[in-house]
Design a protein that fits this description.
4 copies of one chain form a homotetramer. Chain A is of the alpha+beta class. Chain A is 26% helix and 23% strand. In chain A, strand 5 and strand 6 form a beta hairpin. Chains A, B, C, D: This is Chorismate synthase.
Chain lengths: 364, 364, 364, 364
Amino acid sequence: MNTFGQHIHITLFGESHGAAVGAVLDGLPPGETVDWEAVKREMARRAPGQSALTTARREADAFQIESGYFEGHTTGTPLCVRIQNTDTHSQDYAGWRQRIRPGHADYTAQVRYRGCQDYRGGGHFSGRLTAPLVFAGAIAKQILAGQGIRIAAHIQQIGDIRDDSFRPVGEEPAVLKKLSSAAFPLLHEDRRTAMEACILQAKQEGDSVGGMVELMAQGIPAGWGDPFFGSVESVLATLFYAVPAVKGVTFGSGAAFAAMRGSQANDAWYYEAGRLRTRTNHNGGINGGITNGMPLLCRVTVKPTPSIARVQETVDIEAQTACTIQVPGRHDPCIVPRAVPVLEAVLAWGLLDLYLGSDTYRGA
Amino acid sequence: MNTFGQHIHITLFGESHGAAVGAVLDGLPPGETVDWEAVKREMARRAPGQSALTTARREADAFQIESGYFEGHTTGTPLCVRIQNTDTHSQDYAGWRQRIRPGHADYTAQVRYRGCQDYRGGGHFSGRLTAPLVFAGAIAKQILAGQGIRIAAHIQQIGDIRDDSFRPVGEEPAVLKKLSSAAFPLLHEDRRTAMEACILQAKQEGDSVGGMVELMAQGIPAGWGDPFFGSVESVLATLFYAVPAVKGVTFGSGAAFAAMRGSQANDAWYYEAGRLRTRTNHNGGINGGITNGMPLLCRVTVKPTPSIARVQETVDIEAQTACTIQVPGRHDPCIVPRAVPVLEAVLAWGLLDLYLGSDTYRGA
Amino acid sequence: MNTFGQHIHITLFGESHGAAVGAVLDGLPPGETVDWEAVKREMARRAPGQSALTTARREADAFQIESGYFEGHTTGTPLCVRIQNTDTHSQDYAGWRQRIRPGHADYTAQVRYRGCQDYRGGGHFSGRLTAPLVFAGAIAKQILAGQGIRIAAHIQQIGDIRDDSFRPVGEEPAVLKKLSSAAFPLLHEDRRTAMEACILQAKQEGDSVGGMVELMAQGIPAGWGDPFFGSVESVLATLFYAVPAVKGVTFGSGAAFAAMRGSQANDAWYYEAGRLRTRTNHNGGINGGITNGMPLLCRVTVKPTPSIARVQETVDIEAQTACTIQVPGRHDPCIVPRAVPVLEAVLAWGLLDLYLGSDTYRGA
Amino acid sequence: MNTFGQHIHITLFGESHGAAVGAVLDGLPPGETVDWEAVKREMARRAPGQSALTTARREADAFQIESGYFEGHTTGTPLCVRIQNTDTHSQDYAGWRQRIRPGHADYTAQVRYRGCQDYRGGGHFSGRLTAPLVFAGAIAKQILAGQGIRIAAHIQQIGDIRDDSFRPVGEEPAVLKKLSSAAFPLLHEDRRTAMEACILQAKQEGDSVGGMVELMAQGIPAGWGDPFFGSVESVLATLFYAVPAVKGVTFGSGAAFAAMRGSQANDAWYYEAGRLRTRTNHNGGINGGITNGMPLLCRVTVKPTPSIARVQETVDIEAQTACTIQVPGRHDPCIVPRAVPVLEAVLAWGLLDLYLGSDTYRGA
């Protein structure tokens, strides 16, 4: 299932070393003017090859619009984006197909697709498929911005170095704006040195390191989402878990709820200048699966890049024997900085879907 | 959206104080004999009124089968289950509709449903809707058991008291079996006294307390699930987040991945008696969204019951003024023990859906 | 797949001789007041046992609302309706399970459900399942009426007796109103005698007869529906073909288009009192899958009731030998009059789905 | 909704005068080797510019595979096909956007997409979007052929010239094979002269003419499909009605059922050489929405090409005044011959979806 959505649909296609990756976005409202420069900036945030912290693979991630955009606005019919694969070193992958990489989908893809998958560079499981997600999210962000909604994220943790958290009841717009364009977004810039050191240390040791991202969306009106399977948490968790390497998704106070009392966890309602708000925001802007008008807050854990330079123990699934592997290709010692725009993008896309199913859109 | 599923569909209906709650299960394989006593035992695990730790509301949760079961087996056509509401004290809820309960869906339901929702006892948002989920899960467990798959869970944490975690590479069947029938399932029974004390302390103070549940499914073959939106994590997270009060869902090592190195996080492959396994199981049995044959592991955070006896600050949304509220009705000081069978149920249901879409079912 | 819908979902359940049949309607707008007497009238139009023309099985088709209706209006959460089975003569069906009835789903259900289906009275394939469809349609009609949309149908043909057709560019509201409450709706009442004679003749001969129904929906604004798979024709055809015994569905001039010239078939646009209309309406109110503001017109062919009193050639699928069958039970010699309210109902339901996805609803 | 399918998904994109049209096919079984020459032949059957009977627009309909095919077989991940638009004369369409073409989707697209649609050459509503449908169907045909299923169609009618019908209980494989490669497929070749004369007559008069296509699929096992919304008729009708210009879809004896008796319409079962068959096949191989093992038969009515050279009455929707229009561009006087491969293709695609959801695939 490479199609997702209730009120708008995204369909992904492509493999890392095939002709192209891309997506079909079906259900965009007609008449939306897209700021393509802003889309390119989002794509550039995800693109590899930016610094010593990321993979050496360099791709412009130049995209072409196949359909759905005409005379300066969306048509309302499917918008297909195509992102050509250019800097592929497929020969890197020759000769080790049968040695399955630990932490990767090599073995599971082999079973799931009966040995027929394109294994080069992870194929359809590659992080490269997040490029069309970022594209989609960039458009979603623009539509949501038209509704006064702003999305941002920062690196909450890399290794054991932590940034502070968002103020749950809301951040200044300037804070979110600054984060939106940062290559290494932090609430406290002074953590950057330690985090970068942590990453470079891992790199030097032929290793990688994981992290956590905190995301916030401000300006969402109350009433989006549904109880049960269509809860805001269900929709967004589906999308976050669609991103390779994500292994944890929590909302509001998340895991901390386990040790809380109800009297703490219940966010007290009050009116401020005629507007209904909560004094705290442990619930992360969601009650009963539906937005309550407070900032939406979530945290996403990203595991360490499974591609590491070290020799690892594994098996040869053809010979059915033990062997070792040293993963070829060019890899990020820490995927977290590049994951930030991807996670923002899927958050934006999920919110766009919820928006299009809400009374806010009906009355818009 | 009260219908969910890719290869089998569940549709929920009902309100806490309406005529009945129930579900339609569509897509069950024909010819499955259901052990109804086992279903009743699962229902009883969730049912209220069992001890001082749970709500005083007592309901047998007796269910009737409306369709889809004939001559001792499933027919393959929709199985509808109806669970009548009996012990409703609707008058408890009179006169305070406009005072919205903190931590509940009162306000969000009001906006979402334009003031038309059945507000009594949480209406369609009530935990009572988890009864049909447990029913569905009980049937799913039986079908999965026929494939050698066993599901169990334990209370990982209540307040700041923690149980040990599952051994990631697998537990003895006896351990899982014992947990399956326990009212207060723990790996280490000696934590029970402290946890119960924690709950009763909260109760005495008119308060409630949250917790965390760890779940395991053993015996799942490799190859279930899909990349991206149909990942095992996406499917299961959707279902966990469909359960009221859930605010965190992680897989495998979850949040701990943030501080890990790739060389730790990558589970090394090896053959044991000709069977492919991993030495560790940080990935919780899932690579690239697809099961890898190792035990599936996840943790779910449950927030404290929002219904507490204490006076809380809130607003009257009709008068648009501040006020206080003392939530009426009969409530659990800690929902976690009753959440265990519900979370097991949705896990089982999600796995059933994945099974029916897998080559395992094709070849079965 | 017993669930259908894009913007609103209906889920059917039940078997002819089980405990109950029913449906879950999910996505009804909140705040709709239902005229239950009008719903009962629609149910009565479909109910059996009304005259010598229909089956002797008598069932009140009394329904009970399990959820989704509160304080005199829809809540917006799932509305479940339950219709108890009362007048079942299951013993009629004993002893001939293995002799498959020609024209029925006995054999196909046997294969599809691996021999586990409830075979009594057609089980889940029974025309009785159309009772919840009529219920759903009755509610849909009321919501559509609030938008100025009126649906009606008449018997276009029974055997070789034909009624006239609707005036494609529109009928007087009085005409549609009269048809809506007729037990045997005809544009030309003088065809009734011949049609009834045709049915009774078939009945006397232990046989049955087929027919055709023409349906019209007036008042639909332009702009509902989608190109391709979401075309108005696709949506409505899915629903019509979901009704047992339907074997033909055409729109506008239907089969007659084959012999037409483009210059005839193209409906010329013009303004009448500032309102855009077409001079003819061969396209039945639909261009490119989307409503154009003209009356929606379609014709549905209903095959003769397969249950006939005559001895028929068939096989015993257990013994795998030839045999004969004389179908037991009580049956309609012509299902067409009772099919009319069912077809109106699914038309209404399909239009409700299209409405809820349209800009008309957004701006409503 | 440009995505369709239950067990396999197709997503369409593109506009007639945009960069490209195409489709994403998601859910193809892995390991299928595609005969690309056969795909090209199918594409060529639909392609324009073949004779005096079709439009002068010439496009090779060359396609490129973006993903999902590797080392000579399908991978099981999404197969994206891109068909570049080359011979577009967009200037043909300049200056008459506001004059809506009768019989076309110009006005309905305008309302549905709020005036933002790409209007050139019909945009997303263009018959050009059937190219990716033919592509998808060509692959589906190959997979079905591997299961012994053969699909063919012939022109049943053009204007008032009729071909004979298929023998309902089955045709010789040679008959179907011959039809499959014919540019103008007929059971009785001697009707060709009259049909071509009928088309050329219309062309000379600046007009167009409609027709009907009959389709057959042989070799389908019993047990595919579902009751109600997933009936074979519902699935196939959705797909047929997704094809532009289709206005009628019937199965088996179709409209003729209206004048039939049950004793005629019921297809008597018998065993022939141990295989269950019916003596007649009025039901077109479907009982209760499920295939019964007999040939699947359906007829599809195609309206006359709405683009005609004649001056037609219409309106200027900007000025809101009456005007005339002479449709520019290059058009087919009769779309029926080119519709044949398109209708075969969607039939094949629908059958592939049903196959992948059937026990036949499970046991394959």
